[in-house]
Amino acid sequence: VLEPAQINVPRGIRSLAIVNRSLPAKEEKVKNVLEGVITGEGLFADRAGSFECVRGVADGLVSSPRFTVVVPPENELKGTGTRQFPAPLDWNTVERICRQNQTDALLSLEVFDSNNLYSDRKEQRTRKENDREIKYEVTITHVRSNIESGWRIYDPANRQIIDESIFTDYREWEAEGRSHKEALVNLPPQNEIVKQAGYFAGTQYARRISPSWIRTGREMYKKGNDDMKYAKRLAQTNRWEEAADVWRKYTDDPDSKLAGRACYNMALAAEIAGNLQEAIEWAEKSYVRYNNKKAREYNYILKNRLYRQQRLDEQMGE
Known about the structure:
Layout: E1 2-3, E2 15-24, H1 26-39, H2 45-62, E3 68-70, E4 76-79, H3 91-101, E5 105-129, E6 132-155, E7 160-177, H4 180-185, H5 190-209, E8 212-213, H6 226-236, H7 240-248, H8 256-272, H9 276-288, H10 293-316
Parallel strand pairs: 2-3, 2-4, 2-5
Antiparallel strand pairs: 1-8, 5-6, 6-7
């Protein structure tokens, strides 16, 4: 299912140049090094993580049908290197970058900060030695990497910032050992943790500004008579129209249970074909006329999806 984005980007913006502006200028570098020493974070973890964040958003947008993206070879601009947004880029710079890369707008990562939180817990284990059960204790170390990423989208044609948002995303890892030190060895290095979490944060922002594909589950009735079993096999081989021809024969059957199931499956076939309004009508018939309880929930899902489809059409300019 193609889901709409959380943020509506104007239809006229179809291409984005992506830059990393989260890195500190020279006068800020000393502060960042000191912070790294004090907190124990890798000194250059945030730098590597910020570039992975840009790569994550680019990969996420490439897999979406909404935007084309360009990551310029020289995509590094200096900012504050802190959790605070820097002053906006001047419009001459924005226009130059967009002109050079032939894009409609500029997407800039302007804040990037990581924080790795470690915690331990003890668990009992057992093993067998010479037919004897021996109990022992292990340490499980858990790390959660919190990423704060702040983004701006600059629209040079109208000289407007159309989005300015900071998000916190995180990823988690666990490893075990006989001690905390051994468990740490079994975890990824700190720099790698920040890089992976940064990449994930980038993919999440891509989902916020661009429609994205998700997997979703649906139920289908497979039993009732031999025809229902046959239609199931047709559907499982992606022959949905033929399956619908079978189900349609039973949508007004005297057996209300069979008819309700047939109407429900007709709603599914209509959704697969992209006919959401028709799917809603079949689901309502299944519930209202034949009291199929699952159809009531399915009807709600379909109406929700129809609303999101209308948002999606608006975002895609259809």
